[in-house]
Structures are given as structure tokens and as C-alpha cells.
Amino acid sequence: MLKGLGNLGDMAGMMKKAQDMQAKMTDMQEELHNMMVVGESGAGLVKATASAKGELKALDIDPSIFNGEDKEVVEDLILAAIKDAQTKAADRAQEELGKITSELGLPADMKLPF
To answer: How confident is the model over 2-22, as a mean pLDDT?
Structure first.
């Protein structure tokens, strides 16, 4: 139908894909707020729960680690659990983004604003 226009005939298809991607990205952003990951340290003595967006939601500390002499160890365990949760959140977000790019036929390593 639009053969005389060369690649412009594909423009409508590209626009539709862009709109689909935008809708899926919006949905995914909302889902990432609701997906939870748990980071741990000290063999589970400290657990940090975060959304897949990396927002810290909860911190669980086993009471057995509270000893005045171990203050620095406890602080290190807390930081390690939070970092673990943040890493897992970033991995989960990247995994979800990969699903969308795959569905749209985009390269897996394509970096999208996120």
C-alpha cells in the first residue's frame, strides 16, 4: 500500500511498538514497587526486605546478635543485608525489563531508561 514511501510504511508499526513498550514499562514500574526481595547476612541473622525498585521496606534482626561488644559487627551485618537486598532488587528489575525487551523483539542488552 505504501510501497512508494520506502521505509516510511514501517513507521506506523514502529509507533505501535513504541506505544506498547511504553505501556508495558509503565505497568512494570508499578509491579516493581510490589515485588519484594530479601537480602541476608550473617547466615540469616540479619534480613533486609526491599522492593524490586530498591526501596528498603523492612529490617529483621535476630536478637541473639545484640551484644554491646559486637556493635561494629552488627552494623556491618545490617549494611551487608541491605546491600544484598539492593543487589537482588536491581537484578530482579533487570530481569523484568529483559522480559519486556524480549517480547518486543528488542536486543536483550538494550539499555532503556529505568
So the answer is: 71
